[in-house]
Specification:
alpha+beta, binds zinc ion, 4 helices
Amino acid sequence: MARLLPIAKMGEPILRQVAEPFRPEEIGTPAFKALVEGMVAAMRKAPGVGLAAPQVFVSKRLVVIEHVPSDEDARDAILLAVFVNPKIVWSSPETVTTFEGCLSVDNLRGPVERSKAVRVSYLDREGNPGEIEAKGLKAVVIQHEFDHLDGVLFVDRVKDTKLLCHEEQYEKYHAGGRAWEAGE
Ligand code: ZN
């Protein structure tokens, strides 16, 4: 079994760099496929809803997202998606505030205001161009993960740092009010 990719934690300089786009000839190579598979495995193992390449020490513009809800609330489900060189081409003026966490920021959550819906253009893992519109949890995850490609962490976007909390306190005080549900 392949070794799991290590996750870069806050303080690693690579998390603060602007990641490089893939050149067309890099997409679909064995090294590229291994990176995508390694990122999916690391995301599932963590487990996390998304992972950006800089989080596994690769400063390239690549994001994977997937969410399989542990309960039966299928509204939150997100099928596995791979975004290469993605760009947000439209964001809704309406916003939603969600307590976010991050695999690179252990045990911390904080409220971040994001656009409620976004439209994204990207290349898929074969290099084919695609465009999707996302809302709710998926839109929030997309914005969080794409931020990683520009060296931005969710903590940078927390306006009221007095609301930053550890996982246990998040569960205790905030877990009832998931904003993406309230905002639907
Ligand atoms: Zn993150």
